[in-house]
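Hi, here's the filled form for the chain we discussed.

Project: internal
Contact: R.S.
Residues: 243
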Amino acid sequence: MQKKWLERTELLIKEQGIEKLQNANLLVVGLGGVGSFAAEFLARSGIGKMTIVDGDTVDITNINRQLPALHSTVGKSKVEVVSERLLDINPELQLTKINEFLNPERMEEVIGSEKFDYILDCIDSVTPKLALIITAKRKKIKIVSCMGAGGKMDPSKVMVRDISKTYNCFLAKNVRKRLKKEQINKGIRCVFSNEIQNEESLKMTDGANFKRSFYGTSSFMPAIFGLYAAAEVINHLLKKTDD
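And the returned structure, exactly as it came back:
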């Protein structure tokens, strides 16, 4: 029997499954409403090694949807708040923290720093998202990319499909269009919703950190995206046969 806190997980996936998850090394980029939940679901599953990346601090407007966001954490680094929580879940987790917004120029260095089994793209800005996807694809590292959770309210419309099969998502459309210029048309797993976005909830921004606009967001939709991304990775790792 493995550690007591993983007892229920082991009943489901057996000791071999626990070992596969403990031997996995994952990269989670972005710790907002999607990434913070994805990272927590991974930690609670018993993942052995993880790198988390985000250069942002908790803002009071994050409280409606982001796991690290509380009134007591406003102004604190998201990476620090999330890392403290993940290590409280699993003190033996080998955790690397990168407290920065990953600019496109840094993608290759970070992705090449370790042998990652899977990358979770939880970035909500197009340019760095594209750089992460392209770098992962060129290095032949599996990646699941989360598209737009904003402006949507129906959990039943969320799904995981190849990038070529996404629709009714403006972020996915933009990403598809720009990936096409790189001769990448398929082969990337995406979490997206086919619900039509509520255009009245759109707000323009100053363009800081590559972000020009955002949609209004519910408390639950980003978490569902994070859940789907984590499930995609965990199920892949469990199906993976040993070399």
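Let me know if anything looks off before we file it.
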